[in-house]
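Here is an idea for our session: we take a single protein and study its fold together. Once you have written the record down, we can walk along the chain together.
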Amino acid sequence: MIDLDISDAGLWTVTLNRPEKANSLTAAMLEELVEIATRAQVARGFILTGTGKVFSAGADLDEARAGLATSTVWERLSAAVADLPCLKIAALNGTLAGGGNGMALACDIRLAVPTAKVFYPVMKLGYLPQPSDAGRMAALIGPARTKMILAAGQKVEAPEACAWGLIDRLVEPEALMDQARALLDDALAARPEVASGILAMCRG
């Protein structure tokens, strides 16, 4: 349910592959993603995407009811992705919901198809988001818009999310992966210390 492709150039492409369940994430899938992101410290570039029309619906419903929704594994995953020294791109093939937001927010650049939506219905579901999710979202779009999503439960369509800065570029579905790979061309060609050094400077 998690596909990994590693190119000769050092590009790691991770694909959520559970389209029949809207790429909802089980505990086993999340642990596998943490393990991949931990190993990807050696990656020269990193793309996170999904199959089907939804990037991720968040936690698998049955496992969410059993406690997965509030598990620390979400925070471990987003931290592992954020800690990667290479350029990280979330290529959102569709809607981004719930806990799936964390790994996308941990990436450096977010591309999305125009039909995608972003929502995170924690208030409605009765639990807190992972702390880093709220912090990273607020850093991108400000506290008021973050409250629109987390506290008011709004579904934000991709064009508005792009205008806010939550998504960096809208790309038609057939061009999504080509665009993601093209954005990594310079980073893959550069010396690793130059690529990681520029990214470190951008973080301030």
Q: What stands out?
A: The chain has a mean pLDDT of 96. The two ends are 36 Å apart (CA to CA).
